[in-house]
Amino acid sequence: MKKILFKTSIFFFVSFVFFVVNQVFVYSSSEASECILIEPEEMKRRYEDRAILLNDMFIFDIRPYKIANKGKRIPMSMGITYESIENELVYDIEVWKGKDVYLVGEDTESTENFCKAMIKKNYPIDDIYVLKGGMNKWDGSVIAGKFEDVNCEEIDLEEVSGVKNSERKVEFVDIRSLIDYEKGHIPGAVGEGAFNRENLCLTGIFSRAVKEDGAVVFVGYTEAETVHRCRALKWAVGYNNMYVLKGNMKVWKGKIEKGRFEGRY
């Protein structure tokens, strides 16, 4: 009788542990399963809540570049295309886990179609929202101006040190190839080459910088290439504190890390 009770207790204990582990596993691997329409007023309310904007909202502008460049855009949004979501990324997008994505397009129908394509990729995000009516219905904060009018200033090592000494955060984005990144990079720098240069993978970096009024510093091979990349993202995001390291990696005198990019976003 004691053996039977013991075995029964063990069975229920194991079943309970399995249930708990299974619940944790399901939660940690959540994936968006539907496209949720959101009214412009509700999205604006969430957007104006700084905590929600910087911690839980990733806004992707899916409109064609020519249209977005001529019109208005939502600050802190990132422009992406079908090609962006079709490309297989080298690393999992940790920054998306447990967060929500908001899609802004020309109209509801085209944005919903884009959303359905995203859902098929099984990204580790909680929900995908579609702005009802598209960008024309948005009456919140906007930025305007063409890409051609955006400039990115160069910043030297002394100025970078000055930003750090003021206790402002400095985020380095290394736009070189992943191979060269692995040979040697600035400690803590994000290896953009691991993400095939898709804008959507850098959202976490800009959120962190904005929180602390920090600076995003781009490092590459040549001045022209690095400035162009900086301008492209500065135009897309609307955050002014973006710079190019003068002299790129050739002038870096600090510590160097070697090895594979570990997926820090």
Task: Give a written overview of the molecule.
With 265 residues, this protein is an alpha/beta fold. The chain folds into 2 domains: 35-137, Rhodanese-like domain (Oxidized Rhodanese, domain 1); 147-251, Oxidized Rhodanese, domain 1. 39% of the residues lie in helices and 15% in strands. The chain has a 5-stranded parallel beta sheet. Strands 6-10-9-7-8 form a 5-stranded parallel beta sheet. The longest helix has 27 residues, at 2-28. It is globular. Mean pLDDT is 80; it is low at 1-29.
Features:
15% strand; 2 domains; 265 residues; 10 helices; Oxidized Rhodanese, domain 1; alpha/beta; globular; five-stranded parallel β-sheet; 10 strands
Query: What is the second-level CATH architecture of the largest domain?
Result: 3-Layer(aba) Sandwich
Strand order in the sheet with the most strands:
1-5-4-2-3
The CATH class of the largest domain is Alpha Beta
Total individual domains = 2
CATH topology annotation of the largest domain: Oxidized Rhodanese, domain 1
Q: Structural class per helix/strand content? A: alpha/beta
Percent of residues in β-strands: 15-25%
Q: Uncertain runs with pLDDT below 50, 5 residues or more?
A: 1-29
Distance between the termini: 57 Å
CATH superfamily of the largest domain: Rhodanese-like domain
What would you report as the Rg, rounded to the nearest angstrom? Answer: 22 Å
Envelope shape:
globular
Separate helix tally: 10
Helicity range: 25-40%
